[in-house]
Amino acid sequence: MSAPYDPATTAPARTAAKLTVSDAEQMQELGRRLAKLLRPGDLVLLSGRLGAGKTTLARGLGEGLDVRGAVTSPTFVIARVHPPLSGGPALVHVDAYRLGGGLDEMEDLDLDVSLPESVVVVEWGDGKVEELSEDRLHVVIGRAEGDETVENDVREVAVIGIGPRWAVADLSPLVG
Q: What is the pLDDT of residues 76-110, one digit of tens each?
């Protein structure tokens, strides 16, 4: 599986979990399980090619966080805020695909203001939002090793915890 950037070269990291996901429903379930580990102030970067399953994972995160509104790709609006329905954190879902520069171009989104009380999930955020937090999860989604066929939904997912918060986190619930 290839990643567009290696977070281990920019900050202390540990690969917390590697798993195989066989279809969209399992990807969404992974999002629901991951949501149970998140808290306000968490930054999650989702990486993978077009069609890898980033938005499907974000949809599961929204379900797990019990937020309002359908979690869909925010490609054209860049960011959507999904308020909580049951007292948990809001989900700020960002698609940085159309944004070129780093954090400077993202400043208009006020992610630094949203981050302390929300879970911020950024698709295509590699090299653009890492400065928002020394603690973040990087979820890298790729096709199963040696399989580049479009028909196959099997994905290899690596969840990489970066920073002190994730260095001590138990991410084993993601695998089960």
A: 667 788 899 988 999 999 887 766 655 555 555 55
CA distance 168 to 161: 9
Structural element, H or E, at residue 156: strand 155-162
Task: Give residue for tokens 């966080």.
Answer: 65
- d(C-alpha 143, C-alpha 110), whole Å: 33
Domain 7-169, classified CATH 3.30.450.20, yes or no: no
| pLDDT tens-place string over residues 12-46 | 556 678 999 999 999 999 999 999 999 999 999 99
| Rounded CA separation 79/111 (Å) | 10
Determine phi and psi for 162, rounding to 5 degrees.
-125, 130
Q: Name the pairing type of β-strands 79-82 and 90-95.
A: antiparallel
Domain ranges of the chain: 7-169
pTM equals 0.83
